[in-house]
């Protein structure tokens, strides 16, 4: 049966995650007739949730659950110092998940409302790029497949968890990061393969809710992408919180306990791994595989489309996010232009939309902030100390401990430091690294300062509200000139 010929658009966006929805909305705002195709699958199959992994099974879901876990930990461990008594405190995981899902529903509706307001055609379907002008769609409602056309096509299908042959996902005992945000009970003992950003964020949630949590990390160094002074501080803090971090470990096999009628919840999984001391076995209730993510490019384009991918499935693009096909762009997690972070995709979405509309803009990949949404948070922008020393750059460093600020002491959140790295000769800020509560909020000031080529003196002379955590940024800058300033 011939495929139904559908209408044409100025722009077709494939994917409605942060990169996709931001590009679709900006295209429409600039007067371009726009369609956005999305095929998000939740736990129960197709659903109407826009927002991609970021909203449904990533940052937003993680932050929502971590906030609940932090409240539980505060009530059970930290209330007495405030003179507050609480008894018979318990965790209702179902209600916790319901709250998380309510937040996701609300934000997804906001995206849908923005699509409707900007007259964007939202198509629930699987999409395949046929050539530089045509996309085949297979609708979610099982209506006939069709071909739609556009002068410009933006690929924004995001990424998905990488599986491991030694730990095949069964969504029961061995789960991926998506399922780890939808558990119906707190595991007594939990192991996570991977102590990167995703693994640490998941560990922060379930450890606070009472799970004995062990992270198995193949690398010998901890958080190698972060500044190593900050990484060492993070290792100390997380270890003190009860996370067991086993570095230099390579998982070689997993074995699930046999099923017995009525005893499903008592089944365990045994993880066999190797380190410098030999081979070991670890028996846990749940195993989370958090070993990284891969771009969703499988079956994205028909072979005859001749879309160029690299050996790892990333779309080959130039500095303007243009693929090898004229009029076809790739943004967000599909490319190696910057890390897999939501705000990078959002900026690229706007950037490409404005290119298509003939407007000049840019994305400063050198100043993309990174955040680890643990507690305390880690955030950084610019270069690390180890990278700058390896390049032979003359640098100077100013640091300030959060425990020296009045705000941190008043809130009882004193762990962490602010670190500013500046050029020794020009005083230009080269990198800012923070570990502490609200680090993700504090880093915005550093990004703005570096975007406008500020010096450490500029930060030192900028008046900050006192007492605030942000004052620690000012104090770290003052440390270049006056030694360690008073925090109070």
From TrEMBL:
<dbReference type="InterPro" id="IPR036188">
    <property type="entry name" value="FAD/NAD-bd_sf"/>
</dbReference>
<keyword id="KW-0963">Cytoplasm</keyword>
<dbReference type="InterPro" id="IPR006258">
    <property type="entry name" value="Lipoamide_DH"/>
</dbReference>
<feature type="domain" description="Pyridine nucleotide-disulphide oxidoreductase dimerisation">
    <location>
        <begin position="369"/>
        <end position="476"/>
    </location>
</feature>
<dbReference type="GO" id="GO:0004148">
    <property type="term" value="F:dihydrolipoyl dehydrogenase (NADH) activity"/>
</dbReference>
<dbReference type="InterPro" id="IPR004099">
    <property type="entry name" value="Pyr_nucl-diS_OxRdtase_dimer"/>
</dbReference>
<comment type="similarity">
    <text>Belongs to the class-I pyridine nucleotide-disulfide oxidoreductase family.</text>
</comment>
<keyword id="KW-0676">Redox-active center</keyword>
<keyword id="KW-0520">NAD</keyword>
<dbReference type="InterPro" id="IPR023753">
    <property type="entry name" value="FAD/NAD-binding_dom"/>
</dbReference>
<protein>
    <recommendedName>
        <fullName>Dihydrolipoyl dehydrogenase</fullName>
        <ecNumber>1.8.1.4</ecNumber>
    </recommendedName>
</protein>
<dbReference type="Pfam" id="PF02852">
    <property type="entry name" value="Pyr_redox_dim"/>
</dbReference>
<dbReference type="InterPro" id="IPR016156">
    <property type="entry name" value="FAD/NAD-linked_Rdtase_dimer_sf"/>
</dbReference>
<dbReference type="InterPro" id="IPR001100">
    <property type="entry name" value="Pyr_nuc-diS_OxRdtase"/>
</dbReference>
<dbReference type="InterPro" id="IPR050151">
    <property type="entry name" value="Class-I_Pyr_Nuc-Dis_Oxidored"/>
</dbReference>
<feature type="domain" description="FAD/NAD(P)-binding">
    <location>
        <begin position="9"/>
        <end position="349"/>
    </location>
</feature>
<keyword id="KW-0560">Oxidoreductase</keyword>
<dbReference type="Pfam" id="PF07992">
    <property type="entry name" value="Pyr_redox_2"/>
</dbReference>
<keyword id="KW-0274">FAD</keyword>
<keyword id="KW-0285">Flavoprotein</keyword>
